[in-house]
Amino acid sequence: MIWLEFLVVLIFIFWGARLGGVGLGVMGGFGLAVLVFAFGLQPTSPPIDVILMILAVVTAAGAMHAAGGLDYLVYLAEKMLRKNPSRITFMGPIVTYLFTFFAGTGHVAYSVLPVIAEVARESGVRPERPMGISVIASQQSITACPISAATVALLGLFSTAGFTVDLMDIMMICVPSTFIGCMIAALISARTGVELDDDPEFQKRVREGLVEPSGVTSGVKKEYNITGAAKISVLLFLIGALLVVILGSVESLRPAWEVEGVMKPMSMPNTIEIVMLTIAALIMVLSKTKVEKVINNEVFIAGATAVIGIFGIAWMGDTFFQNNIETINGAIQDVVLAQPWTFAIALFFLSVLLYSQAATVRALMPLGISLGISPAFLIAMFPAVNGYFFIPTYGTIIAALNFDRTGTTHIGKYLFNHSFMVPGIVATIIAVAVGFGLSAVLL
Question: What is the rounded CA–CA span in Å between residue 285 and residue 148?
Answer without folding.
Answer: 24
